[in-house]
Amino acid sequence: MKNKKILAFDIGGTKIASGIVEFKKNSYQIFDYQKNVTPKNKDGVIQKLIELIVYYQKDNNYSGIGIGIAGQINYKKDIINYIPNIKGFENVNLKKIIKKTIGENIEIDNDVKCFALAENRFGKFRGYINAVYLTIGTGVGGVIEVDNKLYRGEDNIAGEFGHMVIVENGKKCGCGNKGCWEQYASGKAIEKLYFELYKQKKKAIDIAKDSAKGVQKDQKVIKKSASYLAAGLVSIINTINPEIIVIGGSVVKQKEILDLARKDAFKKALIPARKTKIVRSDLGDEAMLVGAALL
User: Fold this and answer.
1) Do 90 and 144 lie in a common domain?
2) 70 has pLDDT over 90
3) CA nearest 156: which of 66, 69, 240, 74?
4) pLDDT for 71-125, tens place per residue?
5) DSSP track, 143-203
């Protein structure tokens, strides 16, 4: 990988991050980083991707394209089965579409699997044999690593913890079910809870910041959201029994919510598993892009 350059994309429900990732001996650098708003449908996303690839082609010499995307992907067949937060992505071969239009070497996988690849390769928490990786932002995604190997499951959807049902007949989720974890612990969920309580719109990051400053209204929302976050963590700890859970994404950028959730989870986890490490991502927002490049 030394001195190899890859064009990488991280496609989430609200933003498309992109940049040139250059790998060095034991490190990496990201050049020409961009962040764009994610279009609301498949055609808009494909058009934006092609525009960005054409832009990067002008001044960069890279050897391939890696794409991490927030959805359920059949890795063997290169088919995107479904993306809850972007309309139109049902059984779409995005790799084939882009290769036909642009004609470049491309690899695509679920964005959280990219996150896990990067953390495992470059993060300070690498080296664990049994681990779970979570990203909590617009939605909630996860990855399971067993005996130092990525566990994909039969259909490459192992680790979709965001769609564990934690509230019977609860809020409707983009996947079609009700009561999914991501409807209570994600950034969108925090914003919805704030609106339900106070009939005002406020960004999750601002709610977290004001909660840390001692604003009572925001603290109430964060404490409730942390309890939901803990509920999912307990289920993961008790069923997977990992050594460590590494969490990235916008929701845990502020320390308070993770501290509250960790404390609550350890109270409810099975006693032998209360030693599980629950930590914030070391690489932060860069992890998705780096992992996409590693593909």
Assistant:
1) no
2) no
3) 74
4) 888 878 888 988 877 888 899 999 999 988 888 889 999 999 999 999 999 999 9
5) EEEETTEEE--TTS-TT-GGG-B-STT-SB-TTS-BSBTHHHHSHHHHHHHHHHHHS----
- At residue 180, the pLDDT reads 96
- The residue segments making up the domain with residue 134 are 125-280
Confidence label for 139 from pLDDT (cuts 50, 70 and 90): confident
Residues whose CB is less than 8 angstroms from the CB of residue 256 and which lie 6 or more positions away in sequence, other chains included: 208, 211, 212, 222, 226
Q: What are the CA-CA distances from residue 243 to residues 129, 132, 146, 276 (Å)?
A: 8, 8, 10, 5
The end-to-end CA distance of the chain, in Å, is 11
Clarify whether residues 142 and 261 are in a common domain.
yes
3: tokens are: 């001195």
What's this model's pTM, rounded to 2 decimal places?
Answer: 0.89
E strand or H helix at 16, and its extent? strand 15-23
Number of domains within the chain: 2
